[in-house]
UniProtKB/TrEMBL annotation:
It comes from Hemibagrus wyckioides. Keywords: Nucleus, Repeat, tRNA processing, WD repeat. One of its GO terms (biological process) is tRNA (guanine-N7)-methylation. The keyword Repeat applies. The lineage of its organism: Eukaryota, Metazoa, Chordata, Craniata, Vertebrata. SUPFAM superfamilies: WD40 repeat-like. Signal peptide: none annotated. This is WD repeat-containing protein 4. One of its GO terms (cellular component) is tRNA methyltransferase complex. Its main location: nucleus. Required for the formation of N(7)-methylguanine at position 46 (m7G46) in tRNA. In the complex, it is required to stabilize and induce conformational changes of the catalytic subunit. Residues 38-58, 383-424 are annotated as: Disordered.
């Protein structure tokens, strides 16, 4: 699956085992990094199981998570070979370290101070990696009992917020993660997206496989709002069996830099839902527009100017750009920045082919419901029918035996009467 993020003047994308960075403002050669050519793990480290006994199976070099620091000075990725690769983007792109994680990762986030990088993995653990000491191994910060799907930080780096497969959102103190501040509970399926919106450092937005977006006051765990996306255009899908209940996950929630807008993307839907953020301590999200796209988006991001970039699975129309003008979102098809990025992606399209048509990364996370009652009632019906049939057979046998005994008795009585008559 391809991904995109933006910070500073760089629009950074990943697809399969490649990272591609395009400068939005200047016509420069894109930076392309191939994970298959990255540093390999030393053999002595591969056989060392003192780090927790992670699996030693060979990965595919596919990028699993991608992130940029707030200033855009740092970028990082993790891949299927359990590498954590750190880049410096200024004055030019440079790989400054390759470290290894214990297990495959699902999400990463930079601290606002840009001194730490937090990485969440499939086993439920979060590790912290230093940016000031790029070769220093990671430090275990906290753990869940379930697979982690998202990690983010409060804007002041005070809290680390994690989301897992078992519908839990945990808010922990960053300096002492064993101290849990709160839980945000209420989703009915795995939590697939987290976002602390700009301008509202006390809020948390979460998306889930239950097709809802929820707004929280995360420090107290109090839910402020719940939005059912099936009521906002996400109700039909061309590749969904209409005979089955529609289930879809929120794949991305992002906030504009000024904190006035929130964009929500769902898997398998060629649209993006925009919300306006109401002001005030008890503010809410108000749906404003639904952007209809020519096909399903891979990912989306806001740039520093508040423009919305959407990455598509199409070589000819590979990226779209929207700007909020006159109280609505308008397509910027003639923007020089858009043309520059689109031409670069068209040239590098071979790197994106492996991400086209991939199945949802969430499909195996849904709860499996078994209709035991229907099976029980059917078996009960069959058992009662069988009992009735057996009871009918027994009654028929009893009736048959009774008739035979009666006939025998009558015959014996007749013989006795005849014998007495003869003797007289």
């Amino acid at each position: 699956m391809a991904a995109v993020c933006c910070a500073g003047e760089w629009l950074v994308m990943s697809s399969s085992h490649h990272l591609i960075a395009v400068n939005i403002k200047e016509s420069r050669e894109p930076f392309v990094f191939d994970c298959t050519k990255a540093e390999q793990k030393p053999k002595e480290a591969e056989t060392d199981k003192s780090d927790g006994g992670g699996s030693q199976e060979k990965g595919s070099d596919q990028i699993l998570a991608l992130g940029l620091s707030a200033s855009g000075c740092y970028a990082a990725l993790t891949d299927d070979n359990k590498r954590l690769i750190l880049f410096r983007t200024q004055p030019s792109w440079q790989c400054i370290s390759t470290r290894w994680v214990v297990r495959r990762c699902t999400s990463l986030v930079f601290s606002q101070a840009e001194d730490e990088l937090f990485v969440a993995d499939k086993s439920g653990d979060v590790y912290s990696f230093s940016l000031l000491e790029p070769q220093k191994p990671g430090e275990l910060k906290l753990g869940h009992l379930s697979m982690l799907l998202g990690v983010t930080l409060s804007p002041d780096d005070k809290y680390i917020i994690t989301a897992d497969r078992d519908e839990k959102i945990r808010v922990s103190l960053c300096k002492s993660p064993y101290n849990i501040q709160a839980f945000c509970l209420g989703h009915g399926e795995f939590v697939s997206a987290l976002c602390v919106p700009a301008g509202h450092p006390e809020w948390l937005l979460s998306g889930s496989g239950d097709s809802t977006v929820k707004l929280w006051h995360y420090e107290s765990g109090r839910r402020l709002q719940s939005i059912d996306l099936q009521q906002h255009g996400f109700s039909k899908s061309s590749d969904t069996d209409t005979e089955k209940p529609l289930r879809f996950a929120v794949s991305r929630i992002i906030s504009s830099p000024d904190g006035r807008h929130v964009a929500v993307q769902c898997e398998r839907f060629p649209s993006i839902q925009l919300f306006a953020v109401e002001e005030g301590s008890d503010g809410r999200l108000t749906p404003t527009e639904t952007l209809a796209l020519p096909q399903n988006p891979w990912d989306m991001t806001f740039d520093t100017q508040g423009r919305l970039w959407v990455l598509l699975e199409n070589k000819d129309t590979n990226v779209l750009l929207y700007t909020h003008k006159e109280e609505r979102w308008q397509s910027e098809s003639e923007s020089p920045d858009l043309q520059r990025v689109s031409e670069t992606l068209h040239t590098q399209w071979e790197l994106f082919k492996a991400s086209i048509g991939l199945e949802s990364r969430f499909h195996h996370l849904y709860k499996v419901n078994f209709d035991n009652m229907a099976s029980y009632l059917q078996k009960k019906k069959e058992r009662l029918l069988q009992q009735n049939q057996q009871g009918g057979k027994k009654r028929a046998v009893r009736q048959s035996n009774g008739a035979a005994k009666k006939s025998k008795t009558e015959n014996e009585s007749g013989d006795v009467s005849q014998k007495r008559s003869t003797e007289s």
